[in-house]
Amino acid sequence: MDPLPNPAPLASKLRNTLVRYHSIADGEWRAAKKTKDATVWRKPSEEFSGYLYKAQGVVEDVTNRIVDHIRPGPYRLDWDSLMTSMDILETFEENCCVMRYTTAGQLWNIIAPREFVDFSYTTSYEDGLLTCGISLDYGEVRPNFVRGFNHPCGWFCVPLKDSPGHSLLTGYIQTELRGMLPQSAVDTAMSSTLTNFYSDLKKALKM
Q1: Over the range 184-204, which residues count as b (16 or more CB within 10 Å of their CB) and which as e?
Q2: Contact 32/39 with Cβ under 8 angstroms?
Q3: Looking at the whole model, is its pTM more than 0.85?
């Protein structure tokens, strides 16, 4: 088990990695799934043998409120249908923490419940916000869970220039679920998880 990292250099490196993902040319992505709420693309990850996923959709709300629903805090557990528990283990500053969370089984429990311990950081980006994270090897794994690992991931949320009450939400996710799983099951689960994330989030913001 590693000790907790120094947050400042990790936050800076994480932000730079996400900004680099955000500048990847459209031609490098391959479409994976499209719904009325979001479009998902993917490309091979540079971090592990799976995929880096990109999800994008317009959300009808202001940037700050959307990000408050996504980042670690009281809202996320209420609306995210995949997340079953969340604990803040350490808070460095208001925008920077270490959290442990668990997710439900997926695909008729082919994918068993997972546990993650993530460093999370929220910062400004252009006219909006970026909330991002990366998993840490920290703490004991709880019984009945497989410890998954999130390689650098995050959500950019910026107001639409011609419609400031709407925001463009773009996510980059590369989750290593670990355990003995067929890659096709992981790919199906990831695309569906991301489109469901948008529909669940939109419902929560309307409440």
Answers
A1: eebbbbbbbbbbbbbebbbeb
A2: no
A3: yes
